[in-house]
UniProtKB/TrEMBL annotation:
One of its GO terms (molecular function) is alcohol dehydrogenase (NAD+) activity. Residues 10-180 form the Alcohol dehydrogenase iron-type/glycerol dehydrogenase GldA domain. Residues 191-386 form the Fe-containing alcohol dehydrogenase-like C-terminal domain. It comes from Secundilactobacillus odoratitofui DSM 19909 = JCM 15043. Pfam families: ADH_Fe_C (PF25137), Fe-ADH (PF00465). Keywords: NAD, Oxidoreductase. This is 1,3-propanediol dehydrogenase. Belongs to the iron-containing alcohol dehydrogenase family.
Length: 389
């Protein structure tokens, strides 16, 4: 538990049905004269989708813009270099990201290149940025990584296949938009994967060494909301109430981990994501029950509490037995939303585990994990995730 902390989140966070209509006015209030829109081709091509609705609001407010729509999943260094060029070629002065974590991270990475130098790999780590990014607003379309709220920018070096994180208060967007109506048509698989990311992002800060009472409250409510609504949004994506609850869960978890940090699930998931170009939420979900079972011995009472928060009946159980129920609940959630159990499903190979374990321990998310692991232990966790059936 941390007693002294600086609590970070965007200064303004628009939430609810239809809030996307406010983005044009907000861009004007921020004196954005020509934002670069950072997004992907799928969202740009959607009829009346998130990009179309954002552009309509900017048009109405008389704000011009340029567009970069080349963001790939697990955004690569080539994406942010291209986006930087579009920004410079068009005389842009600000950035608006539209999408899930990939768009937001690509937008932050573009901003980093523009004001902190061309070698972003040298800036991996915590609080490495010397200069402010251009003004940045984030329109979120998945629940989700919560990158629209956070100081984390995760980029993949396509040459080394290393996924690295630049963690800095300078990455926090000025304004976030979370409009659940933009999420209704997110496909089932993506809803499940991103929803599991939200689940993990509420669990890891709850057992983090950097947690505090504020973040505990956010984690508890986020976990309850996920338990309440994730299965439903996967089954019925057009349930607006359940989508809204998942957006609330995502924002709460994002606020929590932005300040209490994450742990080995994310540190290891980044290695799988970078090495095999696999979806972040799926990587996190497959590792969750295995890593948290390993973590129990560092704080069994916290895991016993998690079991209760997840709705398990812990009456009369020892702390250790109650803690095991939390792992069972995590496994159940993964199964219910059809996440594969083994990392074989994304093409993982045991010969890569040693290097991935080494890099996981250096990842910016590793330091707050409640149990301190050795490289051999991390290799064993990857192996367990490989052997899982
Ligand atoms: Fe995540």
């Amino acid at each position: 538990m941390k007693e002294n902390f600086d609590f970070l989140m965007p200064s303004v966070n628009f939430f609810g049905k239809g809030v996307i209509k406010k983005i044009g006015d907000r861009a004007k209030m921020l004196n954005m004269s020509k934002p670069l829109i950072v997004t992907d081709k799928f969202l740009r091509g959607m009829d009346n989708g998130p990009v179309a609705q954002t552009l309509a609001s900017l048009d109405e407010a008389g704000v011009s813009y340029a567009i970069y729509d080349g963001v790939e999943p697990n955004p690569k260094i080539r994406n942010i270099k291209e986006a930087k060029q579009v920004y410079l070629d068009n005389g842009c002065d600000s950035i608006i990201t539209i999408g899930g974590g990939s768009s937001h991270d690509a937008g932050k990475g573009t901003g980093i290149l523009l004001t902190n130098g061309d070698d972003i790999t040298a800036l991996a780590g915590i609080e490495t940025l010397e200069n402010p990014l251009p003004p940045l607003m984030a329109v979120n379309t998945t629940a989700g990584t919560a990158s629209e709220l956070t100081r984390h920018c995760v980029i993949t070096n396509e040459e080394t296949k290393l996924k690295f994180v630049v963690v800095s208060w300078r990455n926090v967007p000025l304004v976030s938009f979370n409009d659940p109506m933009l999420e209704l048509d997110v496909p089932k698989g993506l809803t499940a994967a991103t929803g599991m990311d939200t689940f993990v992002q509420a669990i890891e800060p709850y057992v983090s060494t950097n947690r505090n009472e504020l973040t505990d409250g956010q984690c508890i409510q986020a976990i309850r909301l996920v338990e309440d609504s994730l299965r439903e949004v996967v089954a019925n994506g057009h349930n607006v109430e359940a989508r809204t609850k998942m957006v609330e869960a995502e924002m709460l978890g994002g606020m929590a981990f932005n300040n209490a940090d994450l742990g080995y699930v994310h540190a290891m998931a980044h290695q799988l994501g970078g090495q095999y170009d696999a979806p972040h939420g799926v990587c996190c979900a497959m590792l969750l029950p295995i890593v948290e079972k390993y973590n129990i011995q560092a704080c069994p009472e916290r895991f016993a509490e998690l079991a209760e928060i997840m709705g398990e009946n812990t009456d009369g159980l020892s702390t250790r037995d109650a803690a095991d129920l939390a792992i069972k609940a995590m496994r159940q959630m993964c199964d219910d939303v059809n996440i594969p159990r083994s990392i074989k499903s994304i093409g993982a190979k045991p010969e890569d585990f040693e290097l991935m374990a080494e890099n996981a321990l250096k990842d910016g998310n590793a330091f707050s994990n409640p149990r301190k692991g050795t490289k051999e232990e991390i290799v064993a966790l990857f192996q367990e995730a490989y052997d899982a059936e």
